[in-house]
Design goal:
The chain is α+β, with helices and mostly antiparallel strands. Helices cover about 50% and strands about 15% of the residues. The longest helix has 23 residues, at about 105-125.
């Protein structure tokens, strides 16, 4: 609703969009964002709306799931077809671990961790319709900025960054923005040491034309 808010206040001189999930949500086992602790497989940013990731898995097709998680789509859908509902974070992690059990022990632990991260992230994006919401935001952004207004956007994975980069570049070509970041801005090594979760952050910016 940024367009509605901007209309009420007469537009913005500066907008900072932080697309990351709140650390307080990630660290709360009841929200189901982490595969490291057991909890309900929810993954919704707003638990007042939509369906949980557990409910989404009950109805998802192998083709839909394969688009997000190619290497383990079959294992997850087969598990559900056998009547085993994947409704906790531990159950989902165990399916992934079982699927990757063929790997040599030396590389298994790291591969399981990375795969869990990708699976949980992909489900979170799907459950919360994050790409649709971001696309909508980028469409409404120019109208929310005053002439000469600036925007800075923090993204946390390549899909988000690609969408933001494309929208800002196209906006510049169309004369909507007078300038934009040609290269991505990343946190310093020192900041990453102080805050490990900053490691995957990318920032892009743009200036609204006068």
């Amino acid at each position: 609703t940024i367009d509605e808010i901007a209309e009420e206040v007469g537009g913005f001189d500066f907008i900072l969009a932080d697309l990351g999930v709140s650390s307080m949500q990630i660290d709360n086992p009841k929200r189901g964002f982490s595969f490291k602790v057991d909890g309900p497989l929810d993954l919704r940013l707003n638990q007042e709306t939509g369906i949980s990731a557990a409910q989404r898995l009950d109805t998802i097709s192998r083709e839909e799931l394969a688009g997000m998680l190619d290497e383990i789509a079959k294992a997850i859908t087969d598990e559900i077809r056998r009547g085993n509902h994947i409704d906790t974070t531990t159950k989902l992690r165990e399916v992934i671990e079982k699927t990757l059990s063929f790997l040599p022990e030396k590389e298994r632990k790291d591969t399981v961790k990375k795969t869990c991260q990708r699976v949980f992230q992909a489900l979170r994006i799907d459950v919360n319709r994050e790409f649709e919401v971001l696309y909508d935001f980028m469409e409404k952004l120019p109208g929310a900025l005053k002439p000469g207004g600036r925007v800075a956007i923090l993204t946390f994975h390549s899909g988000e960054d690609k969408l933001v980069k494309k929208a800002l570049k196209q906006g510049y070509k169309d004369g909507i923005y007078s300038d934009y970041s040609k290269a991505v801005i990343r946190p310093s090594a020192q900041e990453c040491v102080q805050n490990g979760r900053a490691r995957s952050t990318k920032m892009r910016w743009a200036v609204r034309s006068q």
